[in-house]
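Help wanted!
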Amino acid sequence: MKAFKITYGCIGLLIISLCLYFGSRGLPEKNRELYNRAYSISNAVESRIWSGFHFNQYPVAVRKRSTEYVLQGRKETKREAVLPVTAATAYKMKDGMNILIPCKEDMDSLGQMAEGLSGSGDELFTAQFALDKEAMPDNRYIAILYHEGLHALQLDNYFERMTNILPKHKDDIDFNGMLGEIDGQTGIMDLYKKETKTLYGIIKSKDKAEFKTGIKEYLAIRSEREKAVKSRLGAKKAEDFIRYENFYELMEGTARYMEIRIAEILKDEKLYDEYLDSLQESGTGREKYYRSGMGICLVLDKLSSEWKDDIFSRAVPLSEVLNKLAEV
Amino acid sequence: MTALIINSFREKIRNKTLYVTAIVGMLVMLMLTCTGGLEINGQKMISFKQMVPVGITVINLIGSLLAVMISLNTIPNEFERKTTHLVLVRGIRPWQYMFALTVGNIITSILCVLILFASFAGFCIFWGQVGLIPRALASIIMLSLNTAVISAIVSLFSIKLPAFINGILGILIYFMGVFHNMLTVAAGAADGAGGVVVRGVMHIIPDFIAVQNQASNFLVGNPVDIYPLVVQLLCIYFVLTLTFVTFRKEV
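Answered by r_m:
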């Protein structure tokens, strides 16, 4: 019996030691390397993509389990994780906006799930063991850092104005319920798909006339889809629903647009094409607004170089900006 | 001690219910993975690549439910049949007996998962993908840490709690562990005393999803974080240690 007690005690000590050892290992170096790469392009992003957006002014908190390693330039500090769960997001701390992001190793497992993209419950349950699940490419991780960085800019300066797009009685609205209902309508979903495919065509077109016709066609399909939403949900609910769509396109579409432009800055053609090709695939849930918003932003880039200057302060739906610029 | 564990394990594998349940589980597995009748999100699951995650998820789910069923009655049955008294009069101490029965339950539960895996291996052979079997086996062994935890917890509870309540509790703990991330978010948002309680509960619920993530990383060739696996081992060790101090009044 003595032998059992000693062996059992030793096993316990061994397990506790392993826990302490593996639990105390700090942030893998890879994460610092990726942050430094992101930091180094901050000025180029400000001058070439979004004037007034200084990624390097935001501390980036990289989460490894329940510890966050806060990186800003050469400074690095350590703290307890501020959120109860692993997520990529922008978060207001006492000392200002922080970009929160899971470490690269966790992002390899979670992928864009950590960014909060929607998927069906069934997929969530089984996608974990998908054989074609790949580690997240380094450049996509940097692109997501910038996605959250743009949210930090939005939340820090314009969030109240941006929420003006939402219905006044937003607390009484079940947007997710409506979203589920609309996602279940094959006809409407086909129109969504047609919209993003048209945006893809516009972005790819090299002919001016084709470009202009493409925009008209896109706006017509969008209007047709909004009518279909009205007839499904009723005028009042549809108006609220469309306001939400516009809000997500502005909030998340611009952030996804930032991702694709980062791929361009990093000269990662494969990643750029992946983002662009997503316009040809059908998206469900809120993900479709990430894509359509990104698509509209890319079209706006072709129409004007100034559309970004006051897009958040004016908080106008992207489709309205497109409509206006296309008329000129 | 070893003799007690072996006897407890033998007793379990003599039980026909175990085989019937395992065969039903295997049939469900084979039906789902080989007949091509499954649909997820409106999409038919027909290719090998699509069916692998389904197969592993099913093994994990059925294996864990079997672990609850296996561990539920072992200890209460021993008391009912008065075997406990017969064993204890031979100088074996109550804690040794409870510990041995719990370890027996854990080993049987893992064996069940491996039996289920045999059907998955059959599925791989059916598709001519034998090369995946070793990786999938290692992934399943990682997942069986979760099975061992749930088996240990249900065994421990079975010393004190009625089978019905224990069964519900076991299944509840399993699903709370699988949805640990989401529930932690919900708990974080809860206010007042209730929120504190819920957050406290989430601290003691084993994080099954963390282990599942590592098993999935291994399967697809991504780097594996050892920490959640070691934490699960510690959890098993802790629950096993609790069997040393948990008795029934009649013992």
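OP: Thanks! One thing I noticed: Chain A touches chain B through 34 residues (CB under 8 Å).
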